Hints:
- Helices cover 39% and strands 13% of the residues.
- By secondary structure, the chain is an alpha/beta fold.
- It has a single domain (11-441), classed as Glycosidases (TIM Barrel).
- Strand 11, helix 13 and strand 12 (390-396) form a beta-alpha-beta unit.
Amino acid sequence: MQTPTFPSDFLxxxxxxxxxxxxxxxxxxxxxSTWDTFTxxxxxxxxxxxxxxxxDHYHRYxxxxxxxxxxxxxxxxxxxxxxxxxxxxxGAANPAGLGFYDRLIDELADAGIxxxxxxxxxxxxxxxxxxGGWLSRDTAERFGDYAAIVGERFADRVNLWIPLNEPMxxxxxxxxxxxxxxxHFMLLDAIPTAHHQHLAHGLAVQALRAAGAKTVGxxxxxxxxxxASDSAADVEAARQLDALVNRLxxxxxxxxxxxxxxxxxLPDGYAADLPTIAQPLDFYGxxxxxxxxxxxxxxxxxxxxxxxxxxxxxxxxxxxxxVPDAFRELLVGMRERYGDAxxxxxxxxxxxxFPDVVGDDGRVRDPERVxxxxxxxxxxxEAMDAGVDVRGYFVWSLLDNFEWSKGYAPRFxxxxxxxxxxxxxxxxxxxxYRDVVRGxxxx
Length: 443
């Protein structure tokens, strides 16, 4: 299958996140985050691994920007570590933290690469979590202050902004089922954390625009939800799961409303925040990895659905089914659901993990990733041909990184990282993606 062509102004990029690659967790005044606490808790991370060094991007950012320049991408989506800027999540900015991102942004500018900055990729300052975290409305207010600090410092050089990455993951994995930091098990009682993150998003959009930010969007994880069968019970279960993982996060920012299925779990007075939450956006970031299957809940399940495996497809070593056509289905479905309320889309994350190794010849052969990316770009092109307005595509990820509770085993990078030596080795997929980007630049 050949790689399809895209418009000449299509934005090609790569993505990372601060906690997964930076390391240097105790340097230059950075405060502890919830993920520092979580990784230090026995039994939470596979193999007892941690991110104190990770890919050492904090010290090797110049080398990593040079890799991006060699790749030829036009943009780099990075996140800023909130506890580097405000060690306790409030108060004056840490000059050393701002200084690091100053240097990184300038390095990107020198390389002709546009930064897309995400203000929050799950690393809540631990002091704020101790005061209630995303269960507290005050955290949203503090996030608005943080956004103002970062916007005032960088809006003169950064045009593309995302306040929060995947609030669904923080709410569900962090507070509802406890697999991610901060590790709470609250089930549906975690839904207020979704609302407070949405409020933080709205306050941050206002703060960024006040600081002169020109292009502000969001980045949500979405995937189609399939019923396990055609039975009415399974179809209803799929509708319930779709409301919980998709609509609960898209509807408030796009429509200024919540899906009725879960409105009863929201904090008192939530409706007064909806105008702040539904700020006009310049783009909508979609992170896509996989579909999910739902069935009617089994006896004793307090939820309105059971999760079932997605069968009949190849899998990544992160246990994700590889279903490119579900990507097309998702995007076309979002266009049908939201219509003119849906801004132009950037695919802010799409990628896969495999146990990539450096061969004796120094080469990292990853044909599965090349096939994954090619097939997902083909599905993306089909969605665009069906009328979905997509402006850019960002591969997850530039580098192999710390993959949260699974440690370092899942390798998502276009660049292999030896975590003992920090040697970077571009994989075959790096060369393939470079050729895709170059081919479009030459058109």
